[in-house]
Amino acid sequence: MLIRYKKNYEKIAMGLLSFMPTEKELKKLQQTMKEYETEDSKQLFLWKEEDITGIIGITILENGDAIIQHISVNPSHRHQGIGKMMVKAIKDSLPGKVVTSNEHTASFLEKCEVEGC
To answer: Could you state, in order of their start, the residue ranges of all structural domains in the chain?
Structure first.
């Protein structure tokens, strides 16, 4: 289930985001976290079943459509469909809106479209 990011999840969120190739450098990762915490158009969600195993970050455009900026799953929980479930949950939360990718999430979203999300 998707849950909205809160400050008390910061260490877990930073750990999951650090698996993104663009977020390897600590200063960049801290800047990204600050953007999600301060910019209304940026929203960060965690995927929680028993434990928090994934993270997905989106930017909401003026027309209500969304761009998936970040998506990451804990390596020990990959290949279980968690990424697909996160994308589906985002799409379901934005009925009638278009959910697209950026250059860093495009390959996953293309795979997701082929296999069904």
So the answer is: 2-115
